[in-house]
């Protein structure tokens, strides 16, 4: 009986050692995966930093170019009156904004609405396609999409 219990004990110990080894491998793989993810994250961060630096350099170049062109244009522009100097012709009290022109806006129904109106009035798909100069399949798709909504 003692030999039987010793044998079962050895088998159980062997199984437990195997389980511990498998778990150790899993933990090691998880650590390696985490390390790779950190490396990828740092590489992505480096790429973004390089990209941002390039954009910053381009912005600085554009800023200097704009400053250079604006100063050269300012030299060639005629002198404009400053804001404190108001021409005598303009009087703020007499000003009234222009009135919008009242035009009748003509309602033009959309293509799907025209197709559905014709379909609901009992027209055949081929007739609708001929009337609107569309393909039969296109009309069928428009009707199908409108029914699914």
TrEMBL record:
Keywords: Coiled coil, Membrane, Transmembrane, Transmembrane helix. Residues 73-89 have a biased composition (Basic and acidic residues). Pfam families: DUF6115. The keyword Ion transport does not apply. InterPro entries: DUF6115. It comes from the Bacteria. Residues 62-107 are annotated as: Disordered. Residues 30-61 form a coiled coil. The keyword Membrane applies. The chain crosses the membrane at residues 6-24. This is Swarming motility protein SwrB. It comes from Halobacillus naozhouensis.
